[in-house]
Design a protein that fits this description.
By secondary structure, the chain is mostly helical. It has one domain. Helix content is about 85%, strand content about 0%. The protein has three helices and no strands. The longest helix has about 100 residues. The chain starts with a helix and ends in a 21-residue tail after the last helix. The relative contact order is 0.03.
């Protein structure tokens, strides 16, 4: 009789043991699931961070682009203003010319005045040439200056870190 009770007891113990084992297994499975969930969460956080980084880069680029656009706009404004100033100067010059005509000044004085006017015109032309040169320089900076090694090396540019002026080969007898 005692033996039978012992067997029953043993079976119950084994059943309880198996049940506890299954419970521990389920617990380990839940733990692995939670770990996977945490990993997914970290991955999503990293993705959000990368997205923010890309957003900041895009934001920075568009900001620089807007800044360059504003700079070009200011440059255009200044060019228009200079043109107006030259126009006013020419108008004053014509006014003085009419004034002298009325006063009947001597031809020699008018000749000197015309010579000065031609000199001023040449000066304005040089100014326009310098302006075009500056425009080309800005254009080169925008496009990365990839218009041939000689062309790029002919223009000194502190931004590119070139201190010396280099001339194209055999430039005016220099090499």
């Amino acid at each position: 009789m005692a033996h039978k009770q012992f067997k029953v007891q043993e079976r119950k113990d084994r059943a309880r043991e198996r049940e506890r084992e299954r419970e521990r297994e389920r617990e380990r499975e839940r733990e692995r699931e939670r770990e996977r969930e945490r990993e997914r969460e970290r991955e999503r956080a990293r993705e959000r961070e990368r997205e923010r980084e890309r957003e900041r880069v895009r934001e920075g680029e568009s900001k620089r682009e807007r800044e360059r656009e504003r700079e070009r706009e200011r440059e255009r404004e200044r060019a228009i203003e200079r043109e107006r100033e030259r126009e006013r100067e020419r108008e004053r010059e014509r006014e003085r010319e009419r004034e002298r005509e009325r006063d009947g000044e001597s031809e020699r004085v008018r000749e000197r005045e015309r010579e000065r006017e031609r000199e001023r015109e040449r000066e304005r032309e040089r100014e326009r040439e310098r302006e075009r040169e500056r425009e080309r320089e800005r254009e080169r900076e925008r496009t990365g200056g990839a218009h041939g090694a000689i062309a790029a090396s002919s223009y000194p540019s502190s931004r590119k870190g070139i201190q010396t002026i280099t001339y194209p080969i055999n430039y005016g007898g220099l090499s």
